[in-house]
Amino acid sequence: MDSLQIYNSLTRSKQVFKPIEPGKVRMYVCGMTIYDYCHIGHARMMMSFDVVYRWLKALGYQVTYVRNITDIDDKIINRAGENGETISSLTERFTRYMHEDTGALGILPPDHEPRATEYVPEMLELIGKLEKNGLAYQSEDGDVNYSVRDFEGYGKLSGKSLDDLRAGERVDVNTGKRDPLDFVLWKSAKPTEPDEAKWPSKWGAGRPGWHIECSAMSSKLLGDHFDIHGGGADLQFPHHENEIAQSEGASRHPFVNYWMHNGFVRVDNEKMSKSLGNFFTIRDVLKNYDAEVLRFFIIRSHYRSPLNYSDAHLDDARAALTRLYTALKDIDVRERPVDWKEKHAIRFAQAMNDDFNTPEAVAVLFELANEINRTGSVEMASQLKALAGVLGLLGREPRQFLQGDGRVDGNEEKWIEERIAARVEAKKLKNFAEADRIRNELLEKGIVLEDRPGGKTEWRRS
Fold this sequence. Notes:
Layout: E1 5-8, E2 13-16, E3 24-33, H1 40-58, E4 62-70, H2 74-83, H3 87-104, H4 120-132, E5 136-138, E6 144-146, E7 183-188, E8 206-208, H5 210-222, E9 226-232, H6 236-251, E10 256-262, E11 265-267, E12 270-271, H7 282-286, H8 291-299, E13 307-309, H9 311-328, H10 343-353, H11 358-375, H12 378-390, H13 398-404, H14 410-428, H15 432-444, E14 447-451, E15 457-461
Parallel strand pairs: 3-4, 3-9, 9-10, 11-13
Antiparallel strand pairs: 1-2, 5-6, 6-7, 7-8, 11-12, 14-15
Helix pairs in contact: 2-3, 4-5, 4-6, 5-6, 8-9, 9-11, 9-13, 10-11, 11-12, 14-15
């Protein structure tokens, strides 16, 4: 296989991937702040790096994948207060919901899933190093802040210069700061906050700022210099920029070699947001669409491109995935590993090695499906299933997908079979008008009939 190239947000270019330690990859991805259900934007982020994780392993790398959980935060504290429940109760519940959603979408669990509240001692140690290096100070209000102008190179990830940045632009103006660009490392406890949101420190009781969490957790689990750091494009500034300042300010050497950022989700070409009323949770979508359809919809767009969400696009994804499953439907597929020397697999690997180009890789799957439809080749069907499996697709028995779409219960299936039997009987009696009426009745319910050789009739979802 050709060498893997990754678009590095730090250099703004594609670069050949060279791990720090041969044969091993250490990757950290910023995960969820746990206080509500996961939405489509979260699904896009987690799916993007699920594909990265799967492909790195397919290339033979030993991967250590860390995706954190933020379980202490202003929004979490406020939501728990609104609900009249403890912070731990809120975060445990929504962590469970997140795992249910990611499991439904076939997103592999990371090797480590650290929670911020479990790493407060490491955060305090890191803040102490920054203070010792002259990059952290305590203000009159008790907060400990990072001194941005004392870190040379701030802005290298986002491309923003200090002169371009203004107070109030993604930065809270705090009179306790020496400079409005400085950001908080340790928040001094407020009397109104619950005890479970407070930890003791030499700077007084308080809790960590958001940015320090990831610097501390990543260095603890992966070391203070590792291969890949990922997250949504919205995190590039200020979160990831601040992570670099914290981590390199403490260690005095490079933090991460390759920075990766997935694109935004748009809804009918408008940015998804609660204020616009075009906000969809994963659970909302899975009420109407099979989870693999949603997975396929996300994967067939390049991870760095904007993802335009709409029912029409999901319907198109369902129809496209149906074509792939249909190609396998009448073939006794042999479970086997990918034959990476075969021409389709070579093109698939070339696409994936070109910055995880899933649109091109999916196009190869359709080329294979076309060949299977033409030749009925068992070998090509096995290759299609194996290659799709690299992306977490086509893992089910074809009829399970084609007939169920994940949502058909026993009663509905019984009704469908009864209507098919009635249609067969009508055709025997040469009552073709009744046979057509039954076909149309089923079609109105989204059921397509396919008359097969030998008088057998099969059905699938439209």
